[in-house]
């Protein structure tokens, strides 16, 4: 264990190994084993590009040699901010081959978030596209490097596409060149980078995921090879994945949901095929379902009505599609009841967290459980407590905060010891901040959150972070961001502001936050001017009172 990573006790670790949850195999070795068993089976599809398992394994070796040529090795942290493309998967496994640690960033993150991730992780490199969604990520990286200064950790920016100009900017294609100039000395096919199995230990941190960031900028979540592989494998078993599975990655690959619940990793570990969708539109997705024979995909609730509306056109053959998962936010029950018949699929609700615990409805659950609950834990060793405000367990059916620990739930955030002291109980339970009701069957119904966080269609917005940036606007003297129910997004954000002079509108606020380096999805959906912010008896902003000022939907 490093000084930045809390971990499981020796007794717990021994139990998880004896139970077969932790199998002592790294992701580099898992890919190598899969390539040996199913060399010619298609593993990855992106547009017209295809890789068999043998080709994916060889490509991981090739990119790993290029990374080693840049001096990237075991334990180095590398921020990966790529949209949905095959390169995300290629880079991810190449980093595993050299024992480096990918840090999953979202495509919509901007200077504030990426700079934070680089600083906290001590990242030596970032991997970005040249441009995505009309945004130039190369310029973003120039800003991040300038803010970091000459003493910062960031040495390289790997660009998928045209690298442009800038010291340390490296084209991704240069990493794939099997020559000494690209790979560096001693990186031939027989090198340790090519074999990769000894580059890391299964108890090492394999990747860093992002928390929802309820107290400002996101915390980093360390996931080991052992625990994250079990996460993906347990979900794959519940979903009955096998070599015939064709998973369509619609949501961003950097999301834990799309990557390992079971997602990309679960599919590859089961011997199936991953198809990458460049965007989540039903037209794009349905065309891929037809062409590739997709059997499984994952959505967030805001996508569901768009998919059901498009399916009603009758223009698509969706006969291969068997299961549609919905997670990231609570799915309204009426949407859940419409989705299955509209697409001719089994609906599976997913409630989980990048910190660990994953709950799935089962494929043979009764309709009422599928439509009205958010599933039950995937592992027999997931420990779940539902407790009152004093930490005492409450009876089934009673609302309380969800606490959890288990074989794939973290024991501490990365480099966040002060936060860890309150985020975990003394006996290792993670305080999720989610308010749930547990049924006698073990299924959970998500009621809300204790944390001051807005879940806008699966995108987590920390109120504190946005409020701090709102206060930098010259006209705003006080601000509170409140989440309110919304039929489309689940929740939308409303900024209540106290101003001197005229109050800025929604567009002006969004432009200001963009200039401050905040991701676009964090801008408030509505701005309401108030003469003052109401306070509770203990002097805190009374957000419930603010929400009551809005007209009911």
Features:
Rossmann fold, GMP Synthetase, Chain A, domain 3, 3 domains, five-stranded parallel β-sheet, 32% helix, 24% strand
Widest sheet: strand ordering = 2-1-13-12-14-15-16-17-18
In percent, how helical is the residue content?
Answer: 25-40%
Low-confidence parts? 179-198
Q: Write the CATH fold name of the largest domain.
A: Rossmann fold
CATH-level-4 superfamily name of the largest domain: ANL, N-terminal domain
Number of helices: 20
Instruction: Please give the CATH architecture of the largest domain.
Output: 3-Layer(aba) Sandwich
What is the residue-averaged pLDDT? Answer: 92
Specify the structural class: alpha/beta
Radius of gyration: 23 Å
The first-level CATH class of the largest domain is given as Alpha Beta
Distance N to C terminus: 51 Å
Proportion of residues in β-strands: 15-25%
Shape summary: globular
- Biggest β-sheet description: 9 strands, mixed
Q: Quick one: how many beta strands? A: 27
Tally of domains: 3
């Amino acid at each position: 264990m490093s000084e930045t990573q809390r971990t499981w006790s020796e007794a717990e670790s021994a139990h998880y190994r004896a139970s077969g949850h932790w199998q002592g195999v790294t992701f580099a070795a898992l890919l190598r084993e899969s390539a040996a068993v199913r060399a010619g089976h298609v593993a990855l599809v992106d547009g017209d590009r295809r890789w068999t398992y043998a080709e994916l394994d060889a490509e991981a070796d090739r990119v790993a040699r290029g990374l080693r040529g840049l001096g990237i090795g075991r334990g180095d942290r590398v921020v990966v901010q790529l949209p949905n493309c095959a390169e995300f998967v290629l880079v991810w496994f190449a980093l595993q081959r050299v024992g480096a640690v990918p840090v999953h960033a979202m495509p919509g993150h901007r200077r504030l978030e990426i700079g934070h991730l680089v600083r906290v992780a001590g990242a030596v490199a970032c991997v970005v596209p040249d441009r995505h969604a009309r945004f130039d990520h190369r310029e973003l990286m120039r800003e991040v490097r300038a803010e970091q200064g000459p003493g910062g950790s960031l040495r390289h920016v790997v660009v998928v596409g045209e690298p442009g100009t800038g010291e340390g900017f490296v084209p991704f294609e240069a990493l794939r060149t099997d020559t000494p100039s690209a790979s560096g000395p001693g990186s031939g096919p027989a090198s340790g980078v090519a074999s990769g199995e000894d580059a890391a230990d299964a108890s090492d941190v394999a990747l860093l995921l992002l928390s929802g960031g309820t107290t400002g900028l996101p915390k980093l979540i360390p996931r080991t090879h052992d625990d994250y592989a079990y996460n993906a494998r347990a979900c794959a078993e519940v979903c009955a994945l096998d070599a015939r599975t064709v998973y369509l990655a619609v949501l961003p690959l950097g999301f834990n949901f799309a990557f390992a619940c079971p997602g990309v990793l679960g599919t590859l570990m089961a011997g199936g095929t991953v198809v990458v969708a460049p965007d989540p539109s039903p037209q794009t997705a349905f065309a891929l379902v037809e062409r590739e024979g997709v059997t499984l995909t994952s959505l967030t609730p805001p996508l569901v009505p768009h998919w059901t509306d498009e399916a009603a056109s009758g223009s698509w053959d969706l006969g291969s599609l068997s299961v549609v998962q919905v997670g990231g936010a609570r799915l309204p029950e009426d949407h859940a009841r419409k989705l299955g018949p509209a697409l001719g699929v089994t609906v599976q609700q997913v409630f989980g967290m990048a910190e660990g615990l994953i709950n799935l409805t089962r494929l043979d659950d009764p309709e009422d459980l599928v439509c009205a609950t958010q599933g039950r834990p995937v592992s027999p060793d997931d420990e779940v407590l539902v407790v009152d405000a004093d930490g005492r367990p409450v009876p089934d059916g009673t609302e309380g905060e969800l606490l959890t620990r288990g074989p794939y739930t973290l024991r501490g955030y990365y480099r966040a010891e002060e936060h860890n002291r309150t985020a975990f109980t003394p006996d290792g339970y993670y305080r999720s901040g989610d308010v749930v009701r547990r049924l006698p069957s073990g299924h959970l119904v998500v009621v809300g959150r204790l944390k001051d966080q807005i879940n806008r269609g699966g995108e987590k917005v920390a109120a504190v972070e946005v409020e701090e940036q709102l206060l930098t606007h010259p006209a705003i003297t006080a601000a509170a961001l409140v989440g309110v129910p919304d039929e489309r997004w689940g929740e939308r954000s409303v900024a209540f502001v106290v101003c001197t002079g005229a109050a800025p509108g929604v567009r002006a606020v969004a432009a200001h936050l963009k200039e401050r380096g905040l991701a676009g999805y964090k801008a408030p959906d509505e701005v309401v001017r108030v003469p003052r912010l109401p306070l509770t008896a203990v002097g805190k902003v009374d957000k419930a009172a603010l929400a009551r000022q809005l007209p009911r939907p």
